[in-house]
Amino acid sequence: MKISQKKTALSGQKNPPSQANKRSQRSTKVNSVRALSAQIILQVLDQGKSLSALIPELQSQIKPQDLSLLQEICFGICRVLPRLEHIIKKLVDKQLKGKTRIVHCLLLVGLYQILYTRIPPHAAVDEVVNATTPLKSENFRGLINAVLRRFLREQEQILAVVDKNWQTLHPEWFVNKLKKAYPMQAQHNWREIVDANNQKPPMWIRVNQQHCSTENYRTLLLAEQELTSCTDVNPYALRLTQPISVKNLPHFAEGWATVQDVHAQWSSILLEPQNGELILDACAAPGGKTTHILEQAPQAKVIALDVEQNRLNRVTENLQRLQQKAVVICGDATQPDSWIPQAAEELIGKKTDLQFDRILLDAPCSATGVIRRHPDIKWLRQEQDIESLVKLQEKILEALWKKLKPNGILLYATCSLLPEENSQQITAFLAKTPNAQLEQLPFEQAEGEIGKQFFPSEQGGDGFYYAKLKKKNNI
């Protein structure tokens, strides 16, 4: 018999709290980890807010040592959400809507802890039940307790039904797009991509060659018992066998290393920045690409542009940590004439037009290549978003191309897996831009392939796309 949303006899019982309950109640702050997790998940699912924005904003409400658990619960729920939702449907008669949506999210928190963490199941249930107090949902203590304890009793039977068929754990519209772009006979088929997206990502770092060679930094990590693997493809990248706090990375505060995915690191490598050049890093936040450009060409004149001022704060912080200088400017990449004079004044002391030697355009995109790192993307992104993103990418490309010097280089990059944002976008741009020439990239590519598409893999990098364009001088 299913548990109804309505108050049952069980939910009305006032059982004496266990010792675990008493301890939990004594230690509960304004928001317990479970309560805050439920609040965050509610805002992701119902208000379309991202984990990367919510967690930094709200983490002060819990103890610092609880942050890793908060992240594990929130990111984990987004990663396996359809499975958890299916379980709840088996346990609760009536859908929890409106003001009771927070109760639904508490059930998600409880189920995730039971299935995916090492927290003892009964302790996990107690903590979630106690989280109703800071959320002012005490009337649902009995319901939550009954649902979760029933799941503990019937877990094997319930999961046999829920897991009978393989689940993509992705929205249907996105899976359909993957099937069309990467059929089963393709070298990278859609199912492999989905499986990779459902894994936790490895932690990659980029070694600052101004301070230390990659191999010497690996030796430093080994001395700290942080096991790593090198890559024979990217000369700056190291993969840690287990993610760690940046506080444990040797000389991190002094700028010796930066956390950055191995495929994302190719952006600055393929750009090939040179000292003395004027370089634009468009859509620069949070600054990993800007700092890498300056690691390779410390005397380059770099402008870091982004449309969101609050995100530019991260760029400034990263530049300060690495003791680098760049002009950080807030502006719309589709309207370069609105911010170039100000950037010029900061750079050379007078307002004037600028033409760039190189432009790195990490274009706004669906971010479907970094789902394993940001699993909330699956539930934040909507199918109708893709068309508007493609149009925005087109506008930025056309606007910035006009600001590129003859013989200059524009590197187009996205963290998307969708051809309409990547190869199709570049093909369309080349067709209507006579002075644009597609440059060869240093990778194995199929004949006729436009740019390079990287795919997520268990021990590899995230999904990224690159196309390198040169502005011909004779047109």
TrEMBL record:
Name recorded for this polypeptide: 16S rRNA (cytosine(967)-C(5))-methyltransferase
EC number of the protein: 2.1.1.176
Entry superkingdom: Bacteria
Pfam family, one: NusB
Principal location class: cytoplasm
Residues noted as binding S-adenosyl-L-methionine in the record, renumbered to the chain: 283-289, 306, 332, 362
One Gene Ontology cellular component: cytosol
GO molecular function: RNA binding; rRNA (cytosine-C5-)-methyltransferase activity
Name of the gene this protein is made from: sun
Subcellular location: Cytoplasm
Active site: 415 (nucleophile)
Primary enzyme class: transferase
Purpose of the protein: Specifically methylates the cytosine at position 967 (m5C967) of 16S rRNA.
Alphabetical list of InterPro entries matching this protein: MeTrfase_RsmB-F_NOP2_cat, MeTrfase_RsmB-F_NOP2_dom, NusB-like_sf, NusB_RsmB_TIM44, RCMT, rRNA_ssu_MeTfrase_B, RsmB-like_ferredoxin, RsmB-like_N
One GO term (biological process): regulation of DNA-templated transcription
Chemical reaction(s) catalysed: cytidine(967) in 16S rRNA + S-adenosyl-L-methionine = 5-methylcytidine(967) in 16S rRNA + S-adenosyl-L-homocysteine + H(+)
Domain SAM-dependent MTase RsmB/NOP-type: start-end pairs: 193-472
Annotated spans, Disordered: 1-28
Annotated family: Belongs to the class I-like SAM-binding methyltransferase superfamily. RsmB/NOP family.
Keyword annotations from UniProtKB, A to Z: Cytoplasm, Methyltransferase, RNA-binding, rRNA processing, S-adenosyl-L-methionine, Transferase
